Every structure is written in C-alpha cells, then in structure tokens.
Amino acid sequence: MDGKVGRRGALGMAHIAALLFGLTGIFGVLITTSVEMITFGRAAFAVLGLWLLLVWQGRRIEFRFTLQAWCLLLLAGIFLTLHWLTFFIAVKVGGVAVATLGFATFPAFITLIDHLLFKERVTPREWLLLLLTTIGLILVTPNFSLASSGTVGLLWGILSGFAFALLVVTNKRGAKGIDAIQVALWQNGIVVLLLAPFTVMQFQELTLQNGFYLALLGILCTGVSHYLLVKSLAVLEARIAGMIIALEPVYAILVAWWLFGSQPTLAMVAGAILIIGAILLVSQKREDKLQNSNQNSDLSVDM
C-alpha cells in the first residue's frame, strides 16, 4: 500500500500530472497512425497501467455495480471516446496549442450544462468565466475562416472540451461512491471495446515507434497522471490542485515550442491567459462547494 505523502510531495505530484496531461497533444503529433488507433492504444495501455496499479496496491478489478452504475459508466465511456477522438483530430489539424486551448474551454461548458440541464443558478463569477473564455477563444483563433487549418483545429478542440464537460458532469453525478481508479479503468475499457472494430485492421500497419509512443501516452499520460492527481488530492485542497492542473495548456504549448518550434503569437498568449484565468475561477468555485460538502472527490474522477 502507498505511504503518506507530504504537502511538498503532493504539489510535485500535481505538477507532474499537469505536465503529463499536457504531453498528450505532443504524442498526438509524434504518433503517425490514425486518431482511432491513437485513442484505442491510449485506452488499452491505460487499462493495463491502471490494472497493474491495482495489483501493486493489492486490489482487484471491481465487477459488482448496479445497473444504473453500469449505464453511467457506459455513457461516460462514450463521452471519453468522443473527447479523445476530437482532441487528436484537433492536434492533427491545428497543432498542439490551439487544440489544447480549445479543449481548455470545458469549464465553461460545464457551467452551461449544469445551468441548462439541471437548472443550477449561474453566479456572476461564472458569467465572468464565460466572458473570459469567449474573449480568449477570439484571440486564439488564427482567423475566422473554415479554410484555415488553425480555425478548424480550434473548433475540433472546442468540441473535445464539450465532450469532456459531458464526461465530467456524468462522473460528478453518477460515479460518486465508486473508487476513482475503478472508474478510470472501466471507462478506458469501454473506449477499447467501442474502437476495437474500427482498429483491428490497422494493427498490421502499426510501427514499433508508434507502439512505443502509444505505450507512453496510455501509461504515463493517462494511468500514471491520473494516479498522481488522485494521490495529490489526499493532501492538497481541490482549489490548489485545480490551479495546478489549469497549467496543462501552458506545459503543452511550452513543450511544443521546444520540440517543434511552434512559437505562440502574442494574441494566442493573451487568449491563453484569459482562458486559464477562467479555469482558475472555476477551481475557486469548486473548492467553495467542496468545503461546504466536506468532500474532495470531484477532480479525482474528472481527468
């Protein structure tokens, strides 16, 4: 079983998790196979990594869920599949920076979904969140033309953020009481099952290098990063962890700049600051809710 982690160690774990999450887009560029195979491979290796984590902890895969829980896991798995497919399309079409910043709009979509579907009141802070996110997207957009690969990539990234918001809302309202690692394992397993029919003929074209990158993507950027985030939340306040995870686009853009020479424009930097600032507002709001309810499990099943 795991030992106790101090606050400094938990902060380090959260930053490493944010960096690993940010590397997802980098692997999307490095892996030259189809987005279906990238998503399938990531999920498959994530299942393997999470299963090994359970074995290391002396635990087993849980199978005994209620029918409602199974339905919610299936629904969340579908949303996770859509999120990853659209995100990797965004990376392939528009590059790491616009894909990551488009995805980073998901907190705004969560606010809208909660308001429209569950009639939750939108606070002034949340209206500010939506405004900042909108302005940030306008600044990030290379030009308003569907002939521009950057614009199309950003739209795919935004769609990825919307799918992720649906995943978060489903998990928040349906996965409570289920261990976070079990949730992640089963949802990744559903991704594997959904995409297996579309990727089985592509295995013969999979190179050793792509297979290696897929293993890193699935084990490090999914399994290990998820574990580090959950582990850090045992010590850190959700607000602090949320602020650190909000740095994911920053890490992604900096690594892409270093590896591929993809230097962001000043407008993109300004848009990123606004979008990330909006995420920080959501992190503060989430922490307020968690303190009122004496629990800190939301983030652990969202990533």
TrEMBL record:
Tagged with keyword Transmembrane: yes
One Pfam family this sequence matches: EamA
Keywords on record: Membrane, Transmembrane, Transmembrane helix
Domain EamA: 13-140, 152-283
GO CC annotation terms, alphabetical: membrane
Signal peptide feature range: none
Membrane-crossing segments per the record: 12-31, 37-55, 67-90, 96-118, 127-147, 153-171, 183-200, 212-229, 241-260, 266-283
PANTHER family according to UniProt: ACYL-MALONYL CONDENSING ENZYME-RELATED, SOLUTE CARRIER FAMILY 35 MEMBER G2-RELATED
Protein name: EamA family transporter
Species the sequence originates in: Ignatzschineria cameli
